[in-house]
């Protein structure tokens, strides 16, 4: 690693550790996390989600897309139905990715285009993973757990590129894009794991992500990570190839 690459690597990691800077809309996510951790009345969660109509609509769409692809053709007719079916952990994961995507909309070019490329890849992987689950027999895996996990498939790349965009916006000197591309290629695993540790995501998501990327093994046949691993392997996206 060159001195300049090391300098950028250090600064990007510092930005990644700042949850508010990376995600932005903490006004919903913070009380939502508190309500979920408290494991209290689902009505509190419903009230928080419904306070942002865009997030509420997103939850309905996500719930119906995973249920439909998995063979469940019944529609959730209300936000309450959708959130009860999703479960509180999936609710937070969906909300997190929703606000992350919203944050990405604010990025300048060329970062916005590059990150959206990763985001399109993520959505495609998620669709393939849920479809793959639907074709499996003898497993008891929640399709929303597969979908929410898959939405973090290239999480490290997205967060690192976003942090680099913020770094260049705040620096007196502009660092060439080739530096972050090199760092993503060579330090992807470190950046990804630090992003998970810094951004307050649940431990189960991190554990299944490690399984999905072949960084950890499991004998659990109902692991969402194993479903995703097959898709990531076929797309050559594993952090640790098989």
TrEMBL record:
Pfam families: HDOD. PROSITE patterns: HDOD (PS51833). Residues 22-215 form the HDOD domain. SUPFAM superfamilies: HD-domain/PDEase-like. This is HDOD domain-containing protein. It comes from Shewanella canadensis.
């Amino acid at each position: 690693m060159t001195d300049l690459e090391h300098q950028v690597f250090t600064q990007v990691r510092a930005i990644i550790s700042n949850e508010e800077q990376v995600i932005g809309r903490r006004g919903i996510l913070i009380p939502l996390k508190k309500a979920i951790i408290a494991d209290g009345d689902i009505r509190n969660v419903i009230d928080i989600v419904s306070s942002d109509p865009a997030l509420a609509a997103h939850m309905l769409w996500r719930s119906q897309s995973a249920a439909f692809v998995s063979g469940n053709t019944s529609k959730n007719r209300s936000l309450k139905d959708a959130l009860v079916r999703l479960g509180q952990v999936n609710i937070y994961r969906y909300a997190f990715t929703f606000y992350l995507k919203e944050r990405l909309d604010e990025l300048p070019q060329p970062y916005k285009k590059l990150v959206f490329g990763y985001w399109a890849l993520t959505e495609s992987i998620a669709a393939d993973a849920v479809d793959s689950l639907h074709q499996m027999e003898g497993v008891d895996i929640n399709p929303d757990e597969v979908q929410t996990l898959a939405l973090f498939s290239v999480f490290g790349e997205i967060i690192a590129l976003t942090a680099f965009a913020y770094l260049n916006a705040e620096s007196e000197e502009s660092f060439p894009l080739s530096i972050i591309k090199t760092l993503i290629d060579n330090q992807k695993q470190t950046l990804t794991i630090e992003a998970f540790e810094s951004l307050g995501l649940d431990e189960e998501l991190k554990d299944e992500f490690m399984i999905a990327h072949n960084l950890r093994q499991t004998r659990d046949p109902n692991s969402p990570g194993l479903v995703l691993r097959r898709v990531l392997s076929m797309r050559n996206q594993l952090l640790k190839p098989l």
